Amino acid sequence: MDTDPYYTRPMSPAPADLVNAAELAGRAATLVRSLELRQMPRLVDAGALEGTQVQARIAFGTFEGRTTVDVAVEGTVTLQCQRCLQPCPSDVDEHATLVVVPDDESPVPGGYEAVVGNDERLSLVELIEEQVLLGLPLVPMHDGAAGGCDETDGAAEGPGPDAAAGDVQRPFANLRDLLAKRDG
After folding, report:
1. pTM tops 0.85
2. Residue spans per domain, the chain
3. Which residues, 6 or more positions from 88, have their beta carbon under 8 angstroms from its beta carbon?
4. β-strand pairing of 87-101 with 113-116
5. Distances from the Cα of 123 to the Cαs of 9, 20, 61, 69, 77, in angstroms?
6. Residue 76 in contact with residue 52, Cβ under 8 Å?
7. Each residue of 85-126: pLDDT tens digit?
8. Among 57, 62, 102, 125, which one is most buried in terms of CB atoms within 10 A?
9. Euclidean distance between CA atoms 54 and 58, whole angstroms
């Protein structure tokens, strides 16, 4: 008997976040994941900073023979405050009920949102990232009541005391008159 070990090239590992959602739906499985910023490249591209961490609960099921995914995401995303330009924590609490469809043309049952993909190779990170991106504020700023922005920072201050109240600019104030002249 030959006792020499058999050497072969190592197999490339599949991404850890790909799951067989159809199989998990058949078992009505629920997965829980915690992700940090380094695991979510689309969040990095959106401007998220260190300190970002989210937790997700992903429940799989079926509806009319289709794979469904119930995603609930909670956590804190650290963004740059647009008032003082300092790190600003933003709470995220998003929930979605999805149905996996093979393409954009597939019909989606009422009460569900479509997620295009293969239900045998579904990326959990992409599902979680999408929900986090949907929950981000359009303009991240510290809460005024919390006093997060430094009051001595010039960017956080409003107009100076020498600004007159009548200096407010209204760029569309005469738009109705301009449109009336054009039409009439």
Report:
1. no
2. 18-135
3. 78, 79, 80, 81, 140, 141, 142, 148
4. parallel
5. 26, 9, 16, 12, 21
6. yes
7. 899 999 999 999 999 888 888 888 888 888 898 888 999 999
8. 125
9. 13
